[in-house]
Amino acid sequence: MPKLHVRWALDAGLRCDNDFSLHRCRKYTARKRQGLPQTSFERDHLLFTLSLMLNALLRWSQQVTAVPKLLGSLMPTCCALCGQIGREVICDGCVISYFSHGVARCRQCAIPLPAIESQSAPLCGACLKQTRSFDASVVAIDYAAPADQLVLALKFGAQLPLAPVFARMLRDAMVRRHAMDSKKLVCLGEGIDKNLADALPEILTAVPLGPERLAKRGFNQALEIAKPLSRLLNIHLAHTIVERRLDTLPQAKLHPDQRRKNLRDAFIVPLQAMALIKGRHIGVIDDVMTTGETLNELARTLKRCGAVRVTNLVFARTLLK
């Protein structure tokens, strides 16, 4: 067999005499020297060569797809906060220092509660005074330094590798919330406690961006957090069940009294999504919760279309001034 074909055979991991036997190869060579017609042999020879090339190409493509994973495990990165060289987006030291301290929070709006107040009531004073459309909120961290810099890096710096980190922290916050409610320890591993699974939303969605802002930014930061969180919780993500009808003004630039008016009727539920929402517990994911007006209007829209419960799943909660 010609050396080229032997090399292709070896690259493809095949025996040289499997599909195109050495006997036929010798016979082919002999007929060629005698000047006899080679039509069938040439056809078989071409098909055999092509099959070897395709097999080698397939093996090469499989190896190439494994390269990014291999490089990811070998090549170091640096912590997004302290810059320390390591293999995690946020190093263990920063996680322990800034993200491992759980605090008591209002069950509805997730604002931190003083120790005495948290023992006497599960809701803050504001939630006791006013009726909100959403039923509960879970947050991972307060929107304060240095977590605020991470949120800004994702939202305006397009640092998308931060989104899975936010999702893992939010998942852990949900597990801690369940542990506090049930007064028992729950493993913070990949598995989800059965009682926690029963209390989780049935469907996840993300706060949508308006068309103009989405085109300008290029991605929806809430949806980027929702994708890995959906996989971690094993809950279906349906990001199209609610749409933003209006490109509203940024809430951060408005006075608190203007925020509710700015968002009125900003969201709609498509007709084809109403059957999916009806009678369900919906989890709404966002990056930051400030006054809660955006999430409240979104919950109002979902409940108007049949949702029985709405839980906010937010990475960071702005503190009251």
What can you see in these coordinates?
This protein has 321 residues and is an alpha/beta fold. The protein folds into two domains: 3-74, no CATH class; 90-317, Rossmann fold, CATH 3.40.50. Helices cover 49% and strands 12% of the residues. The protein has 14 helices and nine strands. The protein has helices at residues 3-12, 22-33, 39-74, 92-98, 115-120, 125-129, 147-155, 162-182, 194-199, 211-217, 221-233, 256-263, 274-277, 293-304, and strands at residues 77-78, 85-86, 136-142, 203-206, 236-237, 243-244, 267-268, 281-289, 309-317. The strands form three sheets. A five-stranded parallel sheet has the order 3-9-8-4-5. Strand 1 (77-78) and strand 2 (85-86) form a beta hairpin. The longest helix has 36 residues, at 39-74. It is globular. Residues 1-22 and 184-191 have low confidence and may be disordered.
Number of strands: 9
Q: Tell me the helix content.
A: 40-55%
How many H/I helical runs? 14
If you consult CATH, what is the topology of the largest domain? Rossmann fold
Number of domains: 2
Low-pLDDT stretches are 1-22, 184-191
CATH architecture of the largest domain: 3-Layer(aba) Sandwich
Report the CATH C-level class of the largest domain. Answer: Alpha Beta
Inertia-based shape: globular
Question: How does the major sheet shape up?
Answer: 5 strands, parallel
Q: Which sequence of strands runs across the widest sheet? A: 3-9-8-4-5
Distance between the termini: 82 Å
Structural class label: alpha/beta
Radius of gyration: 29 Å
List the secondary-structure elements in sequence, H or E.
Answer: HHHEEHHHEHHHEHHEEHEHEHE
Compute the average pLDDT: 77
Indicate the proportion of strand residues. Answer: 5-15%
Oligomer: single chain
